[in-house]
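Need the bound structure for WQD, inputs here:
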Amino acid sequence: MSHKILVTGGTGYIGSHTVVELQESGYKVIIVDDLSNSNINVLDNIEKITGVKPAFEKFNLVDSERTEDFFRRNVGIEAIIHFAASKAVGESVEKPLLYYRNNLVSMINLLECQIKFDVPNIVFSSSCTVYGQPNILPVTEETPRQDSESPYGNTKRVNEDILRDSIAANPQLTGISLRYFNPIGAHSSALIGELPSGIPNNLVPFITQTAAGIRGELKVFGDDYNTSDGSAIRDYINVVDLAKAHVVAIRRLLKGKNKTNYEVFNLGTGKGLSVLEIINKFEKATGAKLKYKIVPRRTGDIEKIWADTNLANKELGWKAEKELEETLLSAWNWEKRVREIK
Ligand code: WQD
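Answer from helper R.:
Posting the output first, comments after.
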């Protein structure tokens, strides 16, 4: 009998790729999503890829009654992967209370239902943003977390603490926080990918939209950082590699292989790349010529970060495998399919 997994935010970018990997690994998935930042047709595309259309319910986890009703009707859920959250860094600075309410209250409602309805396992979608600008690189899971420059980043750090403390008080629970670095790319089918609403915040969708002619030119936020070419450095990880890590984490909890009831893992490639290097790699991989200009730094950006991936490699037996060129090409193929560019 296949394990039943709840994926909150499962029609989103990372969520949808994770649902594909879960279903291809034989798990039964039910998605809860309020569709505030994703499209219902993702369900059909997940079915095209895997042959299975995931069960789906539309509501926001901030609604505690609706959330409790969901768990009362959906018995037998053995684990949760919690992606659902507001995630636009800039918007969170303008609307902090919306972000604290949405991201923290939904986590609290979920945990209360886990306790009430005996759902023992949870994997939480966290972020390297909890490290702020680290003093020492690469960052390990022991690197001290810092106040984030954005309410969005703070909600990730606080939610980790909410999860950690809830597990400490309820030993029947086990949880893993996965700290993503910079997820990029799309499924090789180009049927699912990153589809930001409005002007993209993140680098790679802005690059692909510029290459597709939707944006006039890419702005490179700063070339005066203390890096080899002056542009900022990040650890860009393929979204399918990231999705696979969630299946490994879920399996770890279901099989009781976790060493402690609460664990944290960095999910990156271990390699830092600058913005200008990404632009160069994109042009090489796709043959597209990118129009860009250097502008002043973006407020809140850190200079450089990349992961020490030893713990995930050793404990999870997981490693990011996809090459950067393949990843950037997958992002471009997705953009072309969405815009019906030949
Ligand atoms: C990457 C680099 C920009 C856009 C954020 C969140 C993190 C995660 C990923 C959710 C930076 C530069 C970007 C552009 C640019 N989000 N850039 N021009 O800020 O590292 O991380 O998104 O899980 O939690 O903090 O990602 O893609 O916005 O920026 O020059 O148009 O690209 O300055 O150096 P970031 P990003």
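Comments: The pocket of WQD is lined by residues 87, 89, 127, 129, 180, 182, 201-203, 206, 218-221, 232, 234, 275, 298, 301 (CB under 6 Å). Residues 96-116 form the longest helix (21 residues).
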